[in-house]
Amino acid sequence: MESIAKLTGVSKEFHSGRGISGVNLTLSKGDIYGLLGPNGAGKTTLLKMLTGLLTPSFGSISLFGQDLDQSFASSMRKVGCMIESADFYDYVTARQYLKLNASFYPELPPQRLDEVLEAVGLAAFAKEKIRHFSTGMKQKLAMASSILHYPEFVIWDEPTNGLDIEGVVHFRALVKQLSAEQGITFLISSHMIHELEQLCNRVGILHQGVLVREGNVHELLADNISLEQYYIAELQKGKELMDNGGLNSSN
Amino acid sequence: MEGLTAAIRNELQLMIYRKKTIIFILVSVILPVLLILLFHSLQPILGIVAVSPSYPVQMLEIYTVFLIPLFMMVEIADLFPQEISSRTLKLALLRPVTRLGVYTAKFLVLGIAIGILLLLLGTASTLCNLLFGTPGTGSLHIFSLLKAYAAAFLSMWSLAALFVFTAQFFRSAAGFLVFSILLYTGAKTVPYLINGFAFFSITSYTDWYSLWLSHTVSTGRLATTTLFLLSGLFLFVTLGYIFFDRKEV
């Protein structure tokens, strides 16, 4: 299976003592990978390193088989992402913002902007300034922006933050549609375990900067009632390891 | 290269969308008109030759000492610290362009904005002189005018490089603006207290264009000062990039 993203022994140390420790992770083409973990576990840090916003202290990251540092611009052409929070230039309209992004992809057809706005349910607000948008609307715009250029790999950090129930249902349908129609690989970090259970084929659990467990969702569900039960059990194990002398990438 | 072109287009577009850039430029262009009207109204009272053909060059002093430095500080604040405080820098960094490309685009767009402002101010001042100038006071050769404005552009862009470097240490636009105004004022004051400081300070070359209008200045001196300004520009742009490249957002 073609490797889309590969992290090898990736660590990041912050002055606070928190960070990421020795993460090894491979995403194959077509994966919908869910990254789970409590607040402060290092999910966003991991995604930021994967997109070049943070530099790893140790380890290597490759996208599409090429080292991220060496081929950043060419790799990022095939990546769509929404990291940490949906922040925008609030003095532009939704359409103007997408047009700014589209200038990096001259091959895009002109109607593509309207297509993605329609896909996330923002077509009616295309000419409205982003400063008037709610959190959920900004989240939808960030999704629209990240799928604008037909990416092969989409990274979404807490994509359902601020979305109403209808928005969450729409989000789920969008991921399934994009995965089925365009074969996009997804890496989604979320607290919404039920959402990930329904969407993902693989999940990883990050606890205190360590990827404590990862696996195929169907296999995990064979041994557990739900992904939530599995998640809580794994976190408990991680906590016990911490209490008994520390948790690191080797154990 | 495709990424850099798109990044430049993006930064220019954002500069236009930020209304304060357009308002600043429009208000700036009105300034020479207001001043010439003021001079005209004072002329019968004071009995002086208020507006000579060198008006566009006289105005250049006001532009290069006050107006353009203030304009560049406001723009740099938006291009760098404001992007960090509003967490929009990541939008630029997540696009298919290297960090060097993002930084270069921001600096080039700043240069383009300064160039456009100088061009508009020069045009407005020249038109004011043609329409309201006092007749029979001689003429200023257009080539000299172009030389003066081109020289002013280089000194302003070098000064911009210094402020771009300074901006890398700030995470808020307000903090950067206050510090850079104090820094600029201080750097303008120090030469009055310490002899020789002016030779080594980019901030002391804001009136550098006047050398290009003088017939007594040697070519060697012009070449030396040009090299000094270019060196300063490249030095501060490079230092600025080193800090920009290390930014973790």
From TrEMBL, chain A:
Respond yes or no to whether keyword Signal is given for this record: no
Q: Which InterPro entries match?
A: AAA+_ATPase, ABC_transporter-like_ATP-bd, P-loop_NTPase
Q: What range does the record give for the signal peptide?
A: none
Asked if the Swiss-Prot or TrEMBL record annotates the protein with the keyword Iron-sulfur, the reply is no
Q: Which PROSITE patterns match?
A: ABC_TRANSPORTER_2
Occurrences of domain ABC transporter (ranges): 5-233
Q: Which UniProt keywords apply?
A: ATP-binding, Nucleotide-binding, Transport
Q: Which family does it belong to?
A: Belongs to the ABC transporter superfamily.
The molecule here is called: ABC transporter
UniProtKB/TrEMBL annotation, chain B:
Look up keyword NADP and say if it applies.
no
UniProt-listed Pfam families = ABC2_membrane_4 (PF12730)
**Key words of the record:** Membrane, Transmembrane, Transmembrane helix
- Looking at the record's lineage, which domain of life comes first? Bacteria
Membrane spanning residue stretches: 21-42, 62-80, 100-122, 142-165, 177-202, 222-244
Q: Which organism is it from?
A: Paenibacillus helianthi
> What is the protein name stated in its UniProt record?
ABC transporter permease
